[in-house]
Amino acid sequence: MHNLAGAEVVAESVCKTFRTKGGQPVQALRDVSFRVNGGEFLSIVGPSGCGKSTLLMMIAGLESLTTGHLAIDGNSVKGPSEVLGVAFQRDNLFHWRTVLGNVMAQIDLRGWKRSKWEDRARNLIHMVGLEGFENSYPSQLSGGMRQRVALCRALLHEPQMLLLDEPFGAVDALTREQLNVDVATICASAGVTTLLVTHDINEAVFMGNRVMVLAPRPGRVAGIVDVPTFTPRTSEFRVTPEFLNVSADVRAMLEGSTPTPTAAWSPDRNGRRQEDHHNSQLGSGNEQS
Ligand SMILES: Nc1ncnc2c1ncn2[C@@H]1O[C@H](COP(=O)(O)OP(=O)(O)OP(=O)(O)O)[C@@H](O)[C@H]1O
Ligand SMILES: [Mg+2]
User: Fold this and answer.
1) Whole-angstrom Cα distance, residue 54 to residue 191?
2) What is the distance between the alpha carbons of residues 215 and 56, in angstroms, rounded to a whole number?
3) Would you call 27 helix, strand, or coil by DSSP?
4) What is the pLDDT of residues 157-181, one digit of tens each?
């Protein structure tokens, strides 16, 4: 693998407001500012609907900003960039291509020489545990298998930056832990800048150099937590006091920034949950404005 310097990402006061079909504004992100250094691994956590996917789509050049500024290596993001590898929440595989064909799509789209990349494609497919499925079609795979194909496709062309949006969401627990190790190792050894969105706090801490916590409605940066250095990122890291402390810090920051039903819970005189009365009038705390 080439040792390309990873791309640097700078977000300055990024805001995003969508319009619903009825014309109502939905503010997805407000004043989001952060910097990701070249080669750094930033994990992003936050409650459902806080704008994580929107943020990655904007960095990928697939969604516009309402106000603010986004730059990759000092250049304003104006559209999709060749330096990127992306694996989004929906795997977006080509249903008419096999597993190998989907992974090799990166090379075909760029018009590069197939023979130079096929071994690497097969190695990646092996790494994610899909050896033997090279000639299967997406419709013959489970959701977790499809996600792993999408991950191979994102990694194949040795991108300078990886944008991963819950890439392991449908993968079983043990495979997921192994993929955490493998992907963290690939990213670190290749020096690729990586932004990983995940709902799993332990995964965020295990893989990240830092963890950014987003607060909801509209999405804002609640804080960024540093993860202590542990190289290589092997499973032993998960049981160290440092890991447990950082995970607890991230959890506290998430809980502090997220109104949860349990936080509002207190029994009334009849022992009923008081927020049930509120919810019947106001709706649950998780819906979007
Ligand atoms: N194309 C769109 N049109 C209108 N509103 C949108 C659109 N895309 C996203 N939104 C709204 O923007 C907000 C953020 O959505 P987004 O998908 O970025 O959240 P998320 O943090 O990725 O959530 P999850 O964890 O559930 O994937 C939500 O309120 C959503 O309804
Ligand atoms: Mg999302």
Assistant:
1) 25
2) 16
3) strand
4) 889 999 999 998 888 899 899 889 9
Note the maximum CA span of the chain.
Answer: 73
Instruction: Name the phi and psi angles at 129, rounded to 5.
Output: 85, 25
Is there an atom of ligand 1 within 6 Å of 288 CB? yes
Residue 26 CB–ligand 1 contact under 6 Å: yes
Ligand 1 atom closest to Cα of 63? 1
Higher pLDDT, 23 or 210: 210
| Residue 249: pLDDT over 60 | yes
pLDDT band at 6 (very low <50, low <70, confident <90, very high): confident
Tell how far the Cα of 215 is from the centroid of ligand 1, in angstroms.
14
Look at residue 261 in the predicted model and tell me its pLDDT: 53
Share the mean pLDDT of the chain: 86
pLDDT above 90: residue 276: no
Ligand 1 atom closest to 47 (CA): 25
Q: Residue 166 to residues 19, 85, 275: CA-CA distances in angstroms? A: 25, 14, 31
Q: What is the pTM of this model?
A: 0.86
Could you write out the DSSP letters of every residue in 60-121? TTSS--SEEEEEETTEEP-S--TTEEEE-SS----TTS-HHHHHHHHHHHHT--GGGTHHHH
Angle between helices 99-110 and 118-127 (to 10 degrees): 140
Comparing CA positions, the residue from 228, 170, 220 lying closest to residue 200 is: 170
Of 14, 50, 286, best ligand 1 pocket probe by most atoms within 8 Å of the beta carbon: 50
Q: Are 247 and 205 in contact (CB under 8 A)?
A: yes
For 88-115, what is the mean pLDDT?
91
Which tokens hold the place of 273?
């949950």
Nearest CA to ligand 1 atom 17: 53
User: Is there a contact between 183 and 151 (Cβ–Cβ < 8 Å)?
Assistant: yes
